[in-house]
Amino acid sequence: MIILIQVSPRIAGDTSREHDQSRSSKGSESFFANIIKKSFKDFSRSNQIDECEESNVTVNGHLIPDRVLKKAEKQTGPIQPGQYWYDIRAGFWGVLGGPCLGIIPPFIEEFNHPLPENCACGNTGVFVNGRELHQKDLDLLSGRGLPSERDRSYIIEISGRVLDEDTGEELDSLGKLAPTVEKLKRGFGMKFPRAAA
User: Fold this and answer.
1) Is residue 166 part of a domain?
2) 10 Å Cβ neighbour count for 193?
3) Residue 164 pairs with which residues in a beta bridge?
4) What pTM value is reported for the model?
C-alpha cells in the first residue's frame, strides 16, 4: 500500500525556509561558539604561558618570575634583563660581579634572597651588609666617612646610619644615601650598563 501525501507549495516553501534558517542559525551559532571556544583556549593557553614564563632577570642568584618582576617594578622602576645583586637593607644594587650602580628602595620583598658576599667581586676586606665591597664602592663610601680598614664589617641603612657589625657601635652617619628614592619610595630602575652588556 502506497500513501501519497500532497504538500502544498506554500507549506513546502515554509519548510525549506525553516530548514535554511535553522541551518544558517546553527552555522552562525557554531561560528560564534567556535570563536568563543577558541578565545577561551587562547586565554587559557596564554595564562599557562604567563605563569610558566620566566623573565631574564636574576637577583642574588635567583631567577625572578615575570609576574613577580612586574610587582617589584612598582617600587624599583623598570628592570632590564640581567643578573643583579641587591642589598635588601640599604637598597644598593649592581650587576653581578661589579660595583654598586645605584640605589632603589630597601626591603623589596620580591628580591629578599641572601646577598652573596662575593657578588661584587670585591677584594677590599671591608664588608657592608654582608657584601665585600668593590674598590669603587669603598672609595665612594669612605669619602662619606666609612672607615676603610680591612677585615671590618658594617651595617648600613639607606638613611646613612652605620653600625659596626662586630661591636654594635653606631658610627658617624654617612648622610642620606638616596634622599630622592627615600622620599618617593620608588627607584629609577635597574639596567645593565652598556660597557657590561
Assistant:
1) yes
2) 11
3) 154
4) 0.72
Do residues 108 and 86 lie in contact, with contact meaning Cβ atoms separated by under 8 Å?
yes
- At position 70, the amino acid (one-letter code) is K
pLDDT in tens, 112-137: 999 999 999 999 999 999 999 999 99
Cβ(79)–Cβ(190) under 8 Å?
yes
d(CA 75, CA 190): 11
Strand 152-156 relative to strand 126-128: parallel, antiparallel, unpaired? parallel
- The answer to the question of residue 43 being in a domain is no
Contact 174, 145 (CB under 8 A): yes
> What distance in Å separates the CA atoms of residue 79 and residue 69, rounded to the nearest whole number?
8
Total tally of structural domains belonging to the chain: 1
Range of the domain at 170: 54-184
Q: Residue 21 domain-assigned?
A: no
Residue 23 lies in a domain: no
Return the bridge partners of 171, or none. Answer: 162
Q: What are the DSSP E strand ranges found in the chain?
A: 54-59, 62-65, 82-86, 92-95, 100-103, 126-128, 131-132, 152-156, 162-164, 170-171
pLDDT digits (tens, 9 = 90+) for 51-72: 445 679 999 999 999 999 999 9
Question: Which bin fits 26, alpha (ψ -120 to 50), beta or left (φ > 0)?
Answer: alpha
